[in-house]
Amino acid sequence: MAEKPDLPPLREVIARHGLSASKALGQNFLLDEQQLDRIAAIAGDLGGAAVYEVGPGPGGLTRALLRAGAHVWAVERDRRCVPALAELAEAFPEKLKIIEGDAMKLDAGGEIGRSFHIVANLPYNVGTTLFTRWLSATDWPPDWLSLTLMFQKEVAERIVAKPGSAAYGRLSVLSQWRSSAVLAMKVHRSAFTPPPKVMSAIVHIRPEEQPGGVEVGMIEQLTAAAFGKRRKMLRQSLKGTSGAVEALTKAGIDPQRRAETVTIDEWVNLARALRS
Ligand code: SAM
Description:
Radius of gyration: 21 Å
Mean pLDDT: 96
Strand order of the largest sheet: 4-3-2-5-6-9-7
Number of helices: 12
Number of domains: 2
CATH architecture of the largest domain: 3-Layer(aba) Sandwich
CATH topology of the largest domain: Rossmann fold
CATH class of the largest domain: Alpha Beta
Bound molecules: S-adenosylmethionine
Order of helices and strands: HEHEHEHEHEHEHHEEEHHHH
Low-confidence stretches: none
Strand content: 15-25%
CATH superfamily of the largest domain: Vaccinia Virus protein VP39
Shape: elongated
Largest sheet: 7 strands, mixed
Structural class: alpha/beta
Oligomer: single chain
């Protein structure tokens, strides 16, 4: 059973450390402990697990992860948050490692040295860049066991979108061709302090087996070209990709179709046909 020390309310921690939310750092804090526990639970059973948390801020989600029994490596760019996080590290001895730095410049695997879950409530621009980086790992399965990430609701919907929907695009294919992706929870803007302009949602991703004979670079190249011109027929949008039109036929995909109708399995078959 994980230790559950008594902690001061998050509002008190924020006031005592003068952590007024910085717009430049995309700071919108979650303070409702019950909701934070629900988010941590989405990552699965974290007892004894290693978790890489990006952007802990005053440590709301970090507390929930620690309460769930995780060992947390938390990387935060805002040094004002470090003393508040250090208090949390004292309350959970040997369970929390605080890394002051920019997550865009760090290699989580190098920091942690074993398989880990990634959990983050990040500013949306940083979140999407890191997300695509984690999904584009050349080695598969990657060194992360799962991703539990907060996104703007529309981005979360794009990640889990199915063919034929307006939200289906590059991000959907990248997220689903060798992973499972679910929209696990919606979070109302009023849950944050201060509230952002948009609604949010949490996406949970787990790596699956990578289909044979396909490389991530090929999936990225094909979907970039095809969804870059999503209103055009594939034979048109893939014109610049050498061999693509022949590969469409070989993969049994009508070149007159549009990118948004192509299923994940068909993207995989197309990438395979192009490779051979
Ligand atoms: N996890 C806290 C919560 O849920 O209340 C804070 C979330 S707030 C939306 C995003 C946090 O990410 C802020 O604390 C911000 O300082 C931090 N952050 C922003 N850019 C970052 C970066 N490049 N690397 C690490 N942390 C970053």
